[in-house]
Amino acid sequence: MRVAIAGAGAVGRSIAGELLENGHEILLIDKAPTAISVERVPLAEWLLADACEITSLDEAALQRCNVVIAATGDDKVNLVVSLLAKTEYGVPRVVARVNNPKNEWLFNESWGVDVAVSTPRLMSALVEEAVSVGDLVRLLRFSHGDANLVELTLPPEAALAGTRVGDVAWPEDTSLVTIIRGTRVLTPNKEDALEAGDELLFVAAQSREEQLEDLLSVRREDA
């Protein structure tokens, strides 16, 4: 997979190194000569250019990329790169870094963003996830379909503890994608029984989050 990363700072280089280890083809783009540190990521391609300029993106052959990551420290730049990647070059997947949480509402399909990653929001979500049992924690927002990646740790008093996945009447527009049980990562099937302490990861429509939390969090009293 060919991936272009706009922004060759610490974040961009870190992403590049990880993706290279996984066998992907990486192009790092930055307009600052001081950011071009080929020796730090020697297996990547490097381009000294302004990623907000069409001529630069033509030179980068962005139309050949499967993914573009807008990873600069400037939200305005990341939005422009995302929009150009999607509308001018038809890049299938655009991931954008959100530096200021106040700007997060802009990072949506209208600006060509498929996935917006807000580091401050993610850090706060991970803190919440570490200390919250029975509360739904939003980890990541997907622009398409107004869906989020959410997590909930099933409390001991949950009504569904001991219930098989296939027997649960899940809300519409939600999908249980992973069960983390201790050190194990399980791909759920309908025969798996939920256990107290399970970390459940869902992709869910935002409008269904409250319903999902109600379903999982509280042991219902017998009628």
Topology overview:
Blueprint: E1 2-6, H1 10-21, E2 25-30, E3 45-48, H2 54-59, E4 67-70, H3 75-87, E5 93-98, E6 115-118, H4 119-131, E7 137-142, E8 147-153, E9 174-181, E10 184-186, E11 199-205, H5 209-217
Parallel strand pairs: 1-2, 1-4, 2-3, 4-5, 5-6
Antiparallel strand pairs: 6-7, 7-8, 8-11, 9-10, 9-11
Structural write-up:
This protein is an alpha/beta fold. The protein folds into 2 domains: 2-118, 3-Layer(aba) Sandwich (Rossmann fold); 132-216, Alpha-Beta Plaits (2-Layer Sandwich). It contains 5 helices and 11 strands; from the N terminus they run βαββαβαββαβββββα. It has helices spanning 10-21, 54-59, 75-87, 119-131, 209-217; strands at residues 2-6, 25-30, 45-48, 67-70, 93-98, 115-118, 137-142, 147-153, 174-181, 184-186, 199-205. An 11-stranded mixed sheet has the order 3-2-1-4-5-6-7-8-11-9-10, with helices on both faces. Helix 3 links the parallel strand 4 (67-70) and strand 5. The protein is elongated. The chain starts with a strand and ends in a 6-residue tail after the last helix. Pfam families: TrkA_C, TrkA_N. One of its GO terms (molecular function) is potassium ion transmembrane transporter activity. One of its GO terms (cellular component) is plasma membrane. Keywords: Ion transport, NAD, Potassium, Potassium transport, Transport. InterPro entries: K_uptake_TrkA, NAD(P)-bd_dom_sf, RCK_C, RCK_C_sf, RCK_N, Trk_Ktr_HKT_K-transport.
